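EI: anyone free to look at a 402-residue chain?
SC: sure, send it
EI:
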Amino acid sequence: MKKQPATETMKEGEKTGAARVAVFSIVLSQFGFAFSINIVLSFMPFYILSISKYSPDQTMVWIGLIMGINSFFMAAAAPFWGSMTSRFSSKLLYERVFLLSGLTVLLMGFTKSLPLLLALRIFQGALGGASTIGLFMISRHSSRSNLAGNLSLYQNSITAGQLLGPPVGAYLVIHLGYLTPFIISSALMGGSLLLCHLYVDDVAPKQIIAEKDAASNRKVAFGWALSFIATINLTFLPSILPNILGGFSLKGDDALKAAGFIMMGYTATAILGNYLISKLTPTAMIKRTIAAACLFSAFMQMVMYFAPGVFYFAAVRMLQTGAIAAVISLVMSEFAGGVGGAKIGFLNSARFAGNGAGPMLATFILARGNLLGLYLVISLSTAGSVLAFLYSERKIGVGAHS
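SC: here you go
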């Protein structure tokens, strides 16, 4: 029997078993998608170095491009995929994205050409509309009373996938070689597709309503900037870990093992910090918590430069990510409430842009400068963005009472 599309609106408080299953299936599929995309991050610089026929400086630039450029295409494609949900079956679009992404990542494991690898990453980025489509489906399968909680769960699943993928990828490469993670990533894409095909009902297309409120646009713009900076803090490190670990006299397999343990450590603290800070922060304190997390992260970023050893470096990085990871969820809670799907999609694109900017910023600065310059740029950008936000909020508050 063919499943019928979900109704245009859902009654307040309605929570059917099918809807709950659909929500958790979408959440799990997004975890699988994010995990599969990011499983290559920890070893990709090493993989590129192993197949590169270019000079060290040229290879460094290739590393930044290959690791980062797909996220810019994801950010650019997010509005397109959002608009497609108003014309076509969201479930069908969702499944097609998973299928093509799985095939693309599988092909990456067999290429030895950096230009071709770059082209595959670009195509992968253009297909990266799954999270935007998933956001739309989550909102349509959720009642008004549980929408905020479901969106938070969805966001945390993506963050967990992004952070857990890299250390698992490093472990697989060490024990099974470079090809294995690509095959496993492709298989997980297929599993996520099957999960949604079996347990997620389709939703009817919904026309996009234009939103032109100036105050709302300004708030969302600041939310985008804060999420963008927070994502850079989370994603810049893997692309330059070979250089950092080399400074601690770690090379080859020792460096790869250390990279896996470092990312596993800050993955754990990022997930724990994200959960605890988001859960314990009262609604009235969200803006202050965002500011405190960003400023603490900016400070710890500079402390990392003075790390005397790899264990000290890892400990400081764990504290930093524990704070900054919560910013993305807090921003979604603070800025996405009360706005339409178009603006939620725009906020979501900040993660894509940050995923691309992190490794590209790190490798380009390091190729032409030094580690201190890179840390200064990230630290000052983080502090500057949140201070500008606080200043703007203060001006708005003063204006409202004048």
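EI: The two ends are 62 Å apart (CA to CA).
SC: 👍
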